[in-house]
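Per reviewer request, we include the raw input and output of the structure prediction for the construct analysed in the revised manuscript.
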Amino acid sequence: MTVDAGDTPETLDRPWTVHYTPGTTHDLDYGTATLCDQFDRAVRDHHDRPATEFFGRLTSYSELGSRVRRAAEGLRLLGVDKGDRVAVLLPNCPQGVVVFYAALRLGAIVVEHNPLYTADELEAPFVDHGAKVVVTWNVITDVVQDLANRPGTAIEHILAVDLLDACPTAKRLALRNLPVPSLRASRAKLSRADTHTPRWAALETGPELDFSHPYPSSTDVALILYTSGTTGTPKGAMLTHANLVANSTQGKAWVPGLEPGRERFLASLPMFHAYGVTMCVVFGIAQGARLQLVPTPDMDLIMPIFAKELPTFIPAVPPIYTRILEEADRRGISLQGIRNSFSGAMSLPADLIERWEAATGGLLVEGYGMTESSPITVGNPMSTARRAGSIGVPFPDTDIRIARKDDPSEDSPAGEPGELLVKGPQVFPGYWNNEQATAETLHDGWLRTGDVVVQDSDGFLHLVDRLKEMIVTGGFNVYPSEVESVLRTAPGVADCAVVGRAASGGGEQVVAAVVLQPGASLDVDAIRAHCKASLAGYKVPREFVELDELPANPMGKVLRKKVAEAINP
């Protein structure tokens, strides 16, 4: 399927460009390259350098290129053609990188899914995109087989990936053959015996795709990622080759100090998330970086990598940065040498920035994006000009509007909160098979983010909250993030989430779910007094509910909808 990519808008006033890091170009040349072109260039320019690292095993760009060409031919022989969807359900692993670029080489569309989802959660997306070929982790082949037997899905071929195939030989043999309980437990986390499902590995060892096979075009859809936002209904966001190449190009301009072929990217973010797939599988490969792949952001997997060779670039979320600091300190591992770190998906606390930069000697900056924008549209400059508490300024060739919350056609007054609208070459063309949702999200060519922001006079943006998670109480608007930022500094509070509860007389009440620090007890009076010192009375939670933990997505982002379900009767 071919669609028009999000065009770069006519040049508008962009006062924020004065904050760009020296060397960051304001207007970029994106050309007509595809992700396949980027991959081929990386293989050609960095052929003898490591492309992936997995449990210590290195794969060179030359070997990765050969495996991609062989896998592409294997998929072609299964009938995969231009525009077909290839579903992928894998934790981070080298095979995930191979199938991504192999499918794209054929002009097919990759559809990434969370491998931990149940068949019930996957059914609607699979009925929607109609993938005939599924490449899946061998631990969950039963789930995919269940899907294949359900009416409405179109699955014809299931290929099982064994993560042990990507491990170093000694580790692979030990995990498979030694009858040691601890090894047996480790093996169970990575692999499961499956003698009935065809193995993906066979495709990587067959003949290579003929070089004359036609390439996709930049306007072709490359990737579909399902996002439900606050509606709960999965929608397949289509990202074109041009969208993803644009965001990769913008990323390179944003971090001018990157050295192609010499960087090491920690790839702990899941590839089924826009942040993970773009920053690592797309951007990392385009830079000829070594992807230090871990199937899950477990510190027992990350710390051995750090002890051997530190990454130079880390895209992650605040909880991962916190755990790295704690574990590195506990294990006596120095973090000096991690030059650039980028944080997204949730608010980045100022004290975490200070601790991280002191420990690494590098920079940690916050950015913002969403699946529909490939994903990054806003970021803090990768320099000391970065501003704690702000999501930053728009990326190159990216324009924004701050619209009235009740009417996206009208701008909010300067300095007032409003919904963030975005235009740029990274903005998606729409949702798969869903014209209505596309029309609701793209307003006169502007992407409606659903996020409320405030812009400083010099262009820096501050995220206030999700538009649909705003609480209306007594006629006043309450933004949960503002209340949460105060609550997190209350005595005894480790974490929190603020939601609305329907009030008997109409409107809502502000309710806070809190996770307490070890040994602390819930002192409602003390916490309420703490809040009153910083918040207007109508913003102070009327009720506090203690939870052992807050429900979160695989990125660690707290799911307020799930919190509301847990605490509301």
